[in-house]
Each structure stands twice: as C-alpha cells, then as structure tokens.
Amino acid sequence: MRKPATKPAHAAPNGTITAEATYTLAEFQKRTGLKEWALRQARRSGLKVIYLHGRGFLRGSDWLEYMAKAAEAADAAQTDPQAR
Q1: Residue 16, SS3 per DSSP
Q2: pTM (2 d.p.)
Q3: How far is CA 5 from CA 8, 15, 27, 37, 60, in A?
Q4: What is the pLDDT of residues 63-84, one digit of tens each?
C-alpha cells in the first residue's frame, strides 16, 4: 500500500504568500486565485513583475507591499469620498 504524498515542511499552504519567497506567475495565480485579467490590472496599478529568461516572477514582499498600498487607498477613499 502506497503512502499518500506529503508536502515538504517548508511549503506554505495554498493561498499563503510569504515575504521571503519568490513565485512564478503560475504559482502566484494558483495561490491567490487571481485570474489573468485581475493580475494584469494589479500590474497596471503598480505590482512589480520580474522577467528572467522568458519567465515571469513575483516576490512575495512586492505583493504584500502592493496590498498595503491598496488598503491605504481604500481606507482614504472611505474617509474622504472626494479622494476617488
């Protein structure tokens, strides 16, 4: 009888983005659930993507920084309706 495959101890669960890690675009989309259109919009809004040897990568720290800025903008828009 075969043992079920286990994830390495260092692997983060789906949906988790850590600041220390770098993700391929495919892995990033899988973890966040973002589709191509949403990822494209995020890139247009300032999310940094690194291209190396024909492949795209995202640093977890860049995603977390992007999310923090988006949250600040949303908070500002809620407190000041003229800021939109």
Answers
A1: coil
A2: 0.73
A3: 10, 20, 19, 33, 26
A4: 999 999 999 988 888 887 665 5
